[in-house]
Description:
16 strands, 22% strand, globular, binds manganese (II) ion
Amino acid sequence: MAMTNMNSESPSIVFTADLHFDETGAWKHRGITGDACDSFAQIVDFCCAHQAGVLALGGDIVDRPSTKQRTVKFLCDQIDLLQGAGVQVIYILGQHDGREEWPSLHPNAIHLHGRAYDVDEFTICGLDHYRRPGEFLAAYAALQVPPGSFLLCHQGWRELMGGKEELMLADLPFALDLLCGDYHDHCTRHYKARDGSHGILLSPGSTHARDVTEENGKQFFAIYRGTATPYAYRSISLRTRPVQRYWIRTVAEADAFLARQDLPLDGTGLERAVIDVSFYSDIDGFAAQLERALATRCHLFLKPRDRRREERTPSAVARRTIADRGLAGAVDLVCEPGPVRDSAKRLLEAIDAGAELAVMRKEFYDSTDSGSRGG
Ligand SMILES: [Mn+2]
């Protein structure tokens, strides 16, 4: 497979991932729809206008394997446009796609899993699905590709998202440049593989916010033949629905928020903003005020939070209680009445905590024996 891209102003590769076509779950029930298709149409426009060599899709193309017929129709219509402009589509699957190769319903899309595709002087190989570290490393080590190739994949990395169970870029036996879906934020990360070779990971992020915690500023990548370097890449911004988050801690902040004149209200369709407000639930009447002021003018998400649980500075009462009675005194301040509080206090007050625990264990088994087991 090969294709030559003659226009030097054109990107050889346009890369996006985590399109998640079809809205599902709470998002859909809030009436937040159309974002995935709108973003993808912008990417397709860019590819056609700039005569890209390939459009690479890094998995999670649909949100559920059994996607809707109209989504598949939309996808095929967009691939038609790309074909008309001479842009080849290559893709791999993410965990949300299951095993459904929906883009392959169109003859201009190549499922790249276990294969390689050449565009200009670049080689791109593909690997489906998020994998456990051992499985990913085995598949990676078996790749037969020239150095400097790209790998189109859908994988989580500890360097990006933390999590001890995730694979590390530094664990890779040799470096490839990774076109990697799965992480919903747009970023790049340079890394050094075990053999000392250097690579880069390009994470395009999702094409639209999938929940209120996602970062704004959705982007995709365009990769160009370089002059001084093998290639150059640019992040291209997408126009997306406004998503704003606020965190209100005091009555003064609540009043100031309600008086704001700069909120993106009354938008329709894809302009209708998501506004997410976290606030301490002890601010009297604030939730009801927010509902009245905003609920009919945006997609409003309210997150009441418990100040007592979250504030870290101990109160004067707490400091005094701990000074007087030690940690056992503090238990009353943080635990609801019940067996957890009683047990914690008994252990903290005991001279020999091990002996006290043995007594408590005996009491527990005695009570369950008489209560439920009976014989
Ligand atoms: Mn995803």
